[in-house]
Write a structure and sequence with these properties.
binds FE2/S2 (inorganic) cluster, alpha+beta, Glutaredoxin, 4-stranded mixed sheet
Length: about 100
């Protein structure tokens, strides 16, 4: 089994109570991250998604941390932001091939 080119860790604002009252959820992160998953499949990218909890930068959400590189992308509030991130990762994936 090969390793994915990237692993994305989107903050999905989960809390122990299960409430979706945390900042990233209030910014509709779940809908955006559904879009993210759909786009990864449509583009046939070798990217894994691992949902995670609060990344401690709530005022800047929605937030995705990208590995490798330990890069954090903040303010991913619109589908065009997700598209731009995936354009970047697709270029990195192509360059590494
Ligand atoms: S709830 Fe997403 S960074 Fe805090």
């Amino acid at each position: 089994m090969s390793s994915p080119s990237h692993i994305l860790y989107p903050c999905v604002s989960f809390s122990l109570s299960g409430d979706e009252t945390d900042p990233c959820a209030q910014h509709a992160a779940h809908d955006l991250f559904d879009y993210l998953s759909q786009q990864i499949n449509e583009r046939d990218l070798d990217i894994m998604i691992c949902n995670t909890g609060c990344a401690q930068c709530c005022e800047s959400g929605p937030v995705i941390t990208v590995q490798p590189g330990d890069r954090r992308y903040e303010g991913l509030a619109q589908t065009k932001d997700i598209d731009a991130l995936l354009d970047l990762l697709a270029a990195e994936e192509a360059a590494a091939a």
